[in-house]
Amino acid sequence: MSPRALVLAEGLSLWGGMDPATGELIDTHHPQRGVNLTGRVVVMPSARGSSSSASVLAEAVRVGTAPAAFVMSEPDLILAIGSAVAEELYGKAVPVVVLAPVEVAAIRDGAEVRIGPGGVIRTA
Amino acid sequence: MRLVVRGAEVTGASRLIDVTRAHVDSCLYHGEASLDFVRRLVEGHARVSIPTTLNVGAVDLLHPELYRGDPRRAERGRLLMDRYRSLGARPTFTCAPYQLADARPSFGEQVAWGESNAIAFCNSVLGARTNRYGDFLDIACAITGRAPDAGLHRTDQRRATVVLRLAADIPGTLRDADVLFPVLGIVLGRRAGSAVAAIDGLGGGQPEDRLKALGAAAASSGSVAMFHVVGSTPEAPSLDDALQHRTPERVELIHLAELRAVRDELSTATGERLGAVSLGTPHASLAELERYAGMLGDGAVHPDVECLISTGRDTLAQAPDVARRLRAAGVELLVDTCSYITPILRRTDRPVMTDSGKWAYYAPGNIGAQVVFGSSAECIRSAVAGRIVRNDTVWGGL
């Protein structure tokens, strides 16, 4: 089965925002505090905040709590580098897909999302 | 170099440029992935090729007795700090490298900095040029001396596209109060996101410590890597300069009600109960240490309350007299780390008061602390009284 979308109402900084031990969203200012990101395709307008998020992503991949992918409307260098390092160290990347805002907005929470080699996504 | 090239691909850069300095955030332990990565660098005999400062780590190497967490995690954190030092980086262990006279980039200098508050300060207040270099890429740039030619390295990308104007209902006393700046920073981060914004309506020549507090909060609530404060930051002598003589995409007003609401939101606790006061996020400058000591005067920290100020080891070394006065009054001075990223505070079962927007923003999630946000003066007065003491006159008494 394909991973399911988790649509976040606001952007998230993984550092201070996700506990890599559990995959849980821990940012007390985020409306969706308490949801679990593990194995989900995290859909958000943009990433946010700390430059430590790359480390948190690599650590989450190591522990097995990482999201399946990110879908955002702006590229994010910090998540992309975290993903590249996770691939280098642990052989597993977390794709970061950038789509037009209107396409990001069209993804429904809970929808199945397939990500192809070129980063194309299909939702069911 | 593979990581630097990957960075160029993501940012759409067509070439790499030379950078002259780096500030590396990767030395804070986030788990074994942190050590797995640096081990690769050490095994490959990598060395930094440009002057490189290090951000905070997980432990205070000079005062290790302040650490109250899992000793194994402290040991791993210490090992990571040591590994980065062995790559040739300078063991500054501060989130405020811009306070070090010999590490501070000059106007227009191309650098590769990590740590969100340092990035915002570097671009905005110093007029030096860096993108948001996250962990791993920061040290990759330090080793190669190269960075992708994209984003804020380029003049046109430094243009303000958003104007945030303080509305007429914000009183002059609040416009000139230190406590405004962290609150305004949270608003800036929310309104601007990752865009470059110009703040209009503050008096000119704002001191660095206020701009530090503004940028640190903005880089917590948003992805702010650069902002302009008209009349204070070097690329914004006028609003028209900040806009690079073009039309902004949007102009928005900030009203008093929004500032008050954000100030209230930064506190997660109410009442008078107080367990600790945490100051110095980002690391206190020499001027701030002197200001805190001045506010304490002859007073001393209440025995039931812990009062902690985080600062850089180099700043502390420059200020032995102030440090002695603060310690004599019962203040603990923490270096190399910060009290919201690592278990330092003795008691977080009662609310912790802070004057930092960044600390207030992250501490509830990171260390589970209940937070009360207030001005520096309110924090010091509360530390002495042993309970939360407020003075809201600057906010119009509400």
Characteristics:
heterodimer; A: 124 residues; alpha/beta; Glucose Oxidase, domain 1; 8 strands; B: 398 residues; Aconitase, domain 3; Aconitase, Domain 2; 3 domains; five-stranded parallel beta sheet; four-stranded parallel beta sheet
* CATH H-tier superfamily of chain A: Phosphohistidine domain
CATH first level of the largest domain in chain B: which class?
Alpha Beta
Give the number of DSSP strands of chain B.
14
How is the largest sheet of chain A built, in terms of strand order? 1-4-5-6
Distance between the termini of chain B: 54 Å
Query: What is the number of independent domains of chain B?
Result: 3
CATH topology of chain A: Glucose Oxidase, domain 1
Helix segment tally of chain A: 3
CATH topology title of the largest domain in chain B: Aconitase, domain 3
How many domains, in number, for the residues of chain A?
1
Mean pLDDT of chain A: 92
Strand order, largest beta sheet of chain B: 12-11-10-13-14
Which descriptor suits the 3D outline of chain A? globular
Percent of residues in helices of chain A = 25-40%
Computed Rg of chain B: 21 Å
Summarize the helix and strand pattern of chain B as letters: HEEHEHEHHEEHHEHEHEHEHEHHEEHEH
Task: Give the radius of gyration of chain A.
Answer: 13 Å
What class do helices, strands and sheet pairing of chain A give? alpha/beta
**Mean model confidence by pLDDT of chain B:** 96
| CATH hierarchy: architecture of chain A | 3-Layer(bba) Sandwich
Q: Which chain pair has the greatest contact?
A: A-B, 40 and 45 residues
Describe the structure.
The complex is a heterodimer of chains A (124) and B (398). With 124 residues, chain A is an alpha/beta fold. Chain A is built from three helices and eight strands, in the order ββββαβαβαββ. Chain A has a single domain, classed as Glucose Oxidase, domain 1. Helix content of chain A is 25%, strand content 19%. In chain A, α1 (53-63) runs parallel beside α2 (77-90). The mean pLDDT of chain A is 92. Chain B folds into three domains: 2-155, Aconitase, domain 3; 159-264, 3-Layer(aba) Sandwich (Aconitase, Domain 2), CATH 3.40.1060; 267-395, Aconitase, domain 3. Helix content of chain B is 37%, strand content 14%. Chain B starts with a helix and ends in a 13-residue tail after the last helix. The model of chain B has no long low-confidence stretch (mean pLDDT 96). The A-B interface holds A 11, 13, 15-17, 20, 26-29, 45-56, 58-59, 61-63, 74-75, 77-78, 80-82, 84-86, 88-90 and B 2-3, 6-7, 10-12, 25-26, 28, 30-34, 36-37, 40, 114-116, 119, 131-138, 189, 193-194, 219-223, 265, 268, 361-362, 364-366.
